[in-house]
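Q: Sequence in, structure out?
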Amino acid sequence: MADTARSLAVRLLLRTFTAGGYSNLLLDQALEASDLNPADKRLCAMLYYGVTERFLTLEHIAGCYTNRPVGKLDREVRFILYLGLYQLLCCEKIPDRAAVSETVALTGVFRKKSASGFVNAVLRSFLRDGKAIRYPADKWAKKQAEFSAPADLIQKVSEQLGEERADRFFANALLPPPVTIRLNQLRAQESDITNLHPTPCGDAAYAYFTKTADVSRTESYRKGLFHVQDLAPQLCCKALDPQPGEIVFDVCAAPGGKTFTIAEMMENRGTVYAFDLHPNRVKLIKDGAARLGLDCIRAESQDAKQFRDDLPQADRVLCDVPCSGLGVIRRKPEIKYKPLSDFAGLPGIQYDILENASRYLKPGGTLVYATCTVLHEENEAVLEKFLAAHPDFSPVPLTEFHCSEGYKTFTCDDCDCDGFFVGRLKKEG
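A: Exactly. Output:
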């Protein structure tokens, strides 16, 4: 029997929380292979992302209506129940009656008919309570249920950013992220993309928000008039400030958004070396450069921790390193459920990449270190260790971002972008 929007969402949730994988990739693959109509695909995506981002909130609610730990429930029943609770809690356009009946029906689809009474009872009990959430008395347990993020993660970020700023960060992560594009000023101007109803971001040149959901299907996208890119990496490129005619390295480049922005800022004059470890991801850079008409880009497969003496010295180097990704949890909510111990080895890798990348820089050149996380140990701590070992480098204040220091952590308090970190250094001439 072919999947419905709801049954496919449950299957995706089972894969996400048992086998792992990035939500956006799993969803894209599943929808591409399904026979669902466009409306049902949108419903499936909404339910899948919604349950994923509010998993701990839904787990807490379910736990209030059962005598046994929800973690011990049958896996399929558990996610069927969470899907129903999410519809009642967050989906105003789905009538309560339909949310309950469709959810109970899923127990039959997954051959869990014996659990239909249990699922029905929990959902109707939640309705009788006016959909009110009974939050725990403990502060961190309450925040976990409220923000659907592990208490230890919330506490750690609170210690580093301050509790109020951390609360705003995790609350923002539950909101739909904007679709942001970067206009290819070498081929177009704003009047050429009016079909996207663009709104200037105001924080970076040629950056626009758009209400068009799938911009990659538009004719203006196919013509290479823009590329999709969150405001955060566009601001990284602004900090790098590449100039026409220069040699610039993007050492962790795939899928290529930063490379494209750099090349456009350079007016397609000079050379941008774009490296990535995996050849299939290098192809993404090459394909994107071809679509945008950027022929100053040289995309190659390269280990960012290995030095190549056959490469020229660079005027500027962008080092946007692999990281925990906690700044992008509004796009990939499954990341926030990873144990903090999973990230323990990252600072060492990040330092090795930064140190190797610095060897390519000319005296007087600029190096930008960036991540899409908000954790101190992956950001400031890595830069501080590097500066202590390399006295020929010094921080350059990020005055364009109203910052007197050479590094800054951006969150929703600064602009409507993903959480990220930028540090700018200069190599003494």
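The chain has a mean pLDDT of 96.
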